[in-house]
Model the fold of this input.
Amino acid sequence: MSTITFHHGDGAVDTLDVAPGTSVMRAAVSNGVRGIVGECGGQAMCATCHVYVRPGYLAVLPEIGDDEDEMLDCTADPRDPRRSRLGCQVTLGEGLDTLEVDVPGSQV
Amino acid sequence: MPTPAHPAPGHPGGHVVVVGNGQAGMQLIDSLRAGGYAGAITVFGEEPHAPYQRPPLSKDYLAAGADPEPLPLRAARFFLEHDVDARHGVAVTAVDRHARTVAAADGTTLRYTTLVLATGARNRPLAVPGSGLAGIHGLRTLDDAERVHAHLGRAANVVVIGAGFIGLEFAAAAAARGANVTVLEYGPRPLGRAVSATMSGHIAAAHVRDGIDLRLGDGIAAFVGTDGHVTAAVAGSGAEYPADLVMVGVGVLPRTELALAAGLEVDNGIVVDGALRTSDPNIFALGDCANFPQPRLGARARLESVQNATDQARHAAAAILGETGEYDELPWFWSHQGTLKLQIAGLSQPGDGTVLRGDPATGKFSVFCFRDGRLAAVESVNAPADHMAARRALAAGRTLDPDQAADPTFDFKAWSRDPAPAAV
Ligand SMILES: Cc1cc2nc3c(=O)[nH]c(=O)nc-3n(C[C@H](O)[C@H](O)[C@H](O)COP(=O)(O)OP(=O)(O)OC[C@H]3O[C@@H](n4cnc5c(N)ncnc54)[C@H](O)[C@@H]3O)c2cc1C
Ligand code: FES
Done:
């Protein structure tokens, strides 16, 4: 199992244990984590699964793909040049057994 | 003045009953609670599943080794946290507009202050001989997708009827799993009604390059089979294509049966006004089942997309909470077909002038559609930056010169963000 923690703007925290291979977006949507929408079902086409990855985890993340990069320029809350990712493009497991992210204030 | 039996919908005594727990129904509930609605909410969904997302069913879900769990629309926790009475697996069977009640298949009758019809659509059936043979599928629900998924790994020859979005997505997914895939399309081009001829041509070429046998201008005439299972599809031209799996994707029919029986106005969908109200002011309709005035076309339209379902749901929720205003959100859509990530902003129309931006040979380009000298739609392949810029520009009602659109040195993205555009 991998562990992912979502930090909300109001201080609330959701911590989930998920099977390796689960994307951040799927983990959030399947468990009702508020603030993550995932409207395109994980196709990197809607940018409503935006998260800010906490600094300690940035080094182990997979690289940002071209589509993800372009969509990250279109998030509802501003892109953070280092920390912004699409939750559907980051998958737990394979060297990423724990992850902490901040949930943006808006996605739409 | 609201009578005690029918309190105003925003009042804690109100009861919003939602028929359909799909994309539109679930977003409506979410937006109602987010907007402060304090009354009761009941949602009925006929399918025996918690609400799930349909788009992946014709894409990721069909891949070998895909996660068998569908992607939920809202998790179980949502219904508790938002105090929603969710009746998954229960169909609404009748609406009594005078008593303001709905009757459900579980035997209950509920009184509503506002009723929301978010009933979606069903697949259009084929009426050719042999349509009842085993091995012939449609793809709308999770149950459909599970059946097809189980069959797909064993199918050597797949025939797809109809080169619409779902047909082409399925064709690409089946080809990726190693099947020989033939697509039969009655019309002269794929996605004929949905995209410009320019884009359609590029999409056809890409599928042919990926090994799909695309037969245009030839419809399905009959299916033949042995022992009750399909073995071949026979086209109108007489050509016969071996098939152990057939996918029928010839469009959908809006689910209007409840509305019709209740005496609401129906015409290619449930007819609604700009606030998404039906001919009965206490009843709204939205999503795939609703026929609404589309200001951008200056005509009525019925759209089938996640954007349409969710934006209409937000609008109807606001209307239920007392806001006024006409629905006028920019339509946008995506479709993922093998190596093609197609995104569309706006609605193209036959007769639009088109301009190409980027080189299709690179696999990354956009088609800009102009109508009456103004930008009307942008269709992009593997070019999400163009798509998002187009959404910004079109939503703001901005237009550009066709020469600018075609000019690779013109920074479309930066232009679309310019907060104080020069008058064009
Ligand atoms: C395979 C597939 C792929 C798709 N891909 C894309 C895509 O890539 N991009 C995109 O934008 N759109 C896509 N769509 C379209 C999108 O999913 C629909 O437009 C959207 O789901 C419409 O939402 P809706 O709420 O109007 O209808 P639905 O999501 O269909 O929900 C309606 C629900 O109401 C229920 N219902 C109907 N009548 C009753 C009743 N009497 N009682 C109780 N329940 C009832 C139905 O069972 C259904 O579950 C796709 C659709 C399919 C089927
Ligand atoms: S779910 Fe749409 S971009 Fe991630």
